[in-house]
Amino acid sequence: MAVPNEIRDRAAELRERIEDASHHYHVLDAPTISDAEYDRLFKELEDLERSHEELRTPDSPTLKIGAPPLDGFDKVTHAVPMMSLENAKSEDDFRDWTERLRRRLGDDAPDRFVLSAEPKLDGISMSITYENRVLVQAATRGDGETGEDVTANVRTIRGLPLRLHLDAPARVEVRGEVYVTKAAFETFNSQRTEAEGRYVNPRNFAGGSLRQLDSKITARRPLRIALYQLVGAEEMGLATQAEALDRLEAWGLPVPRDWFRQCASEDEASAWFTKLEGSRSDIPFEVDGMVLKVDAIPLWAPLGARSRTPRWAVAWKFQAQEETTTLNDIIVSVGRTGALTPVAILEPVFVGGVTVTHASLHNHDEIDRLDVRVGDTVVVQRAGDVIPKVVKVIVGARTGEPERFRFPDRCPACDTPAVEVEDEVVVRCPNPDCNAKVKARIRYFASQDALDIQGLGEKLVDQLVDEGHVKTPADLFRLDVATLAGLERMGEKSAENLVAALDRARQTTLPRLVCGLGIRHVGEVVADILAVEGRTLEGLGAMDEEILAAIDGVGPVVAKSLRAWFDEPRHAALVSDLDAVGISYPEPERATAGTLLDGMTAVVTGTLPELSRRDAQALLKQSGAKVASSVSKSTSFLLAGEKAGSKLKKAEELGVPILDERAILAWLNGGPSPLP
């Protein structure tokens, strides 16, 4: 039976009134109707849609209360990659960035860059697409190329319109950050029971809320969104980032204007950064820096992008935050190679948006240097807003004479006598069957840089090892749904998902596999070199120490470690076992000869001004060079950035040419060789 026109018209009127009221309340902070009136209109629309299902449109405000639960999240390929941003950690870094922009633009560079300054929200990056003004898709950043479809959850965010205003084009893609205010986060966390668990910080909360399979749960979370990029702005005739933000606002999209600035010069941008950093505690949401963009959009294309970051934008990070707290205890953890690492157990303290309860003490030499003792008042720094560490002891606050910490002479996990290795500051557990080492090895094998097994978390690894299901990495691939489903907090669906992830991980690459074995001194770079030389895992194991040591980028220390690993009968059995459970990989391709750096060996160290270390290594390999992890007499040149450390010192001692990034890039772009 057809829906009467007057009912259709009433539903349309209700949708329009509710969206307008929501926009004024959540975006403009200027309510036009009372909460009671809003609730009455909302309920009337719900009742109409319940009685006449065909009235429910894709932009209906009632979708903000959630949709039926999903089985999982579909993958979304970003037509325009969602790139990361280069970091600036100081005023000098920021000034270097603008100087690089000038050099790249040459005669086209302006005397002064007008810059768009935006808060770097510590949230979850999001891409949202509207077609015919209706929100049709929302996707997470993912790896920049592929994200997850979280449309149903994003539709529930208050203040985000499901339909754009009339003057919006047929297709609009906007990008921004999903976040939660500090106050809303604290309120939500305070209402959760101990059994439910509490989120560690607002970003963790936003991410967890967006990954709910039941969007009704997300709808009950106080999520917000700030939008800061209009994809295709230049094609729409917009000349500046400021104009793009104005356009987003005109379409009814939320832009946190109070914290955005258009800066007429670098000096003005620097002054605004200082003010923003000083006001950090007053900003209602977590920020960890300021994003600066060249305001003139037509300059973005000639400035271009590196493999992962645009050149026309930079993230100027705030200084690491510090707080004082009490050191309640020092425990010692055991890593995959048996290294005993001291960890500070702290009275919980809020640092840089996170409640910190543990911090690194690195090794026994660092404990001696700090003279840190249980009960001390210590300064905790969240360096780079990521890794907490103890940086200072407030000796004047010490009461009495607390005992010095005595580093254990036995492994705290298996009670095996610990050993000190010559020329190392690390004390190690030598027991290969130490439960803590087994767990750490399994976690490392499953990590993102190795086999990248999705869903195999730390607690699950602990269960699998403790209950005897897993002793080696190969055992992971013998797990079945029945075994996994019987574990704590593992239902049948989760078990099926993990088995599927393990099946996918069977097809890998040799560098990932070699890296995942956790051989001492073998990281990503060395694993890449070894894979090319060995061709197969068995082939690598057949190479003698002298041959391994002669490989550029390997050397005697790594060669000795490799040979010792493969000579262990248990490791030889593991290699065979990995093959038996179906681990496979394509044979690595050798670099083609005849390129500019063919036959050269390069080492990269320090923080480069424009390229990440991985990008620099990839660029050198593409140009024919071998990239090694340590400096030796056979090194052709060292590419050195800031804080280069011991590799720079060794290069100077050996007379190895030292090049900076500018010289390398000019050389690879057709300039003269900078080598002597």
Summarize the structure.
The chain is of the alpha+beta class. The protein contains 24 helices and 22 strands. A hairpin with a 2-residue loop joins β4 (124-131) and β5.
Task: Give a written overview of the molecule.
The chain is an alpha+beta fold. The chain folds into six domains: 5-56, Helix hairpin bin (Helix Hairpins); 86-317, DNA ligase/mRNA capping enzyme (D-amino Acid Aminotransferase, Chain A, domain 1); 321-420, OB fold (Dihydrolipoamide Acetyltransferase, E2P), CATH 2.40.50; 435-505, Orthogonal Bundle (DNA polymerase, domain 1); 510-580, 5' to 3' exonuclease, C-terminal subdomain (DNA polymerase, domain 1, Orthogonal Bundle); 601-668, 3-Layer(aba) Sandwich (Rossmann fold), CATH 3.40.50. It is 35% helix and 19% strand. The protein is built from 24 helices and 22 strands. The chain has a five-stranded mixed sheet with strand order 2-11-10-3-9, covered by helices on one side. Helix 23 (646-654) links the parallel strand 21 (637-640) and strand 22 (658-659). Helix 1 packs antiparallel against helix 2, helix 12 packs across helix 13 (458-466) and helix 16 (510-516) crosses helix 17. The radius of gyration is 28 Å and the shape is globular.
